[in-house]
Design a protein that fits this description.
By secondary structure, the protein is of the alpha+beta class. The chain folds into three domains: 127 residues, Nucleotidyltransferase, domain 5 (2-Layer Sandwich); 69 residues, Beta Barrel (OB fold (Dihydrolipoamide Acetyltransferase, E2P)); 32 residues, no CATH class. Helix content is 35%, strand content 20%. It contains eight helices and eleven strands. The strands form four sheets. A four-stranded antiparallel beta sheet has the order 5-8-9-10, with no helix packed on it. The chain starts with a helix and ends with a helix.
Length: 252
């Protein structure tokens, strides 16, 4: 269900708005029981649709003609041989490539209803889309945790940094599809990747900023700390020897 809501959010971001109707197949993340107009919409999906204010139009069963454009898209995607033949460094690189490829295809293909390119038809229809609201990040776990003196919260066997201003207080921690969100007073104050290999996930920005009325800010990094941080941020093959020499001078 998390992945289902996540791909909806990504699709709406690319459309730059919310359509009045979203046609879906009868997968169980959309329809809990039955199919088509007689199906029972998944309660979590119904809540998601109600929040974003779009109507769920479940495709009639055994009616491929009602989703022909979707099936056509699947066939076209299989023609993108580069996806299978090329090595990808990660999902982000693959997603960027497919986004760019999709825009090129939209500019090339014709929309039967308008006679223009698909891209031009979309540009003309954008004014009919509902404005894109702050999209809710779907989550499957939500707990309340205290922030330790080190500015850390424990979640799923790992520790995550929280802005030091919340030390000693309790915050809400949400496990989302790809990230862990930390909320305080209804606002997201920290966000980290979820399900990573590291057991201690640090964000140096959480320890920066002025003191508050309740918490004194951590002391900033000294010259030695800044030098170490600069060296650590560089790939080993690109670290010049003069950086190590400068570090040795600082240590004297």
């Amino acid at each position: 269900q998390l992945a289902w809501h996540h791909v909806h959010n990504e699709a709406f971001r690319r459309l730059e708005g919310i359509p009045a109707t979203v046609r879906v197949d009868n997968e169980r993340t959309a329809v809990s029981r039955g199919a088509g107009a007689w199906g029972v919409i998944n309660p979590r999906y119904r809540c998601f649709a109600k929040t974003l204010r779009f109507h769920i139009d479940a495709c009639p069963p055994r009616s491929p003609g009602h989703k022909g454009k979707i099936e056509r898209g699947n066939r076209d995607d299989r023609r993108w041989r580069e996806i299978r033949q090329r090595h990808w460094d990660g999902l982000a690189e693959l997603q960027a490539w497919t986004d760019a490829q999709g825009l090129r295809e939209d500019a090339r293909r014709r929309c039967p209803a308008t006679g223009t390119s698909v891209l031009e038809a979309w540009e003309a229809e954008k004014r009919f889309l509902a404005p894109l609201p702050p999209l809710p990040e779907p989550f499957d776990v939500a707990v309340t945790r205290p922030v330790s003196l080190d500015g850390l919260v424990a979640f799923e066997g790992r520790q995550y940094t929280v802005p030091f201003a919340w030390v000693g207080l309790r915050v809400e921690v949400r496990g989302c599809a790809q990230v862990v969100q930390v909320l305080a007073e209804g606002q997201v104050v920290a966000e980290h990747p979820r399900h990573g290999r590291a057991l201690l996930v640090l964000d140096p920005a959480c320890y920066e900023g002025p003191s508050t009325a309740r918490v004194v800010a951590p002391p900033p990094l000294g010259r030695m700390g800044r030098r170490l941080q600069e060296i650590a941020a560089m790939p080993p093959s690109q670290r010049p020897l003069d950086l190590y020499a400068a570090l040795a001078e600082v240590a004297r």
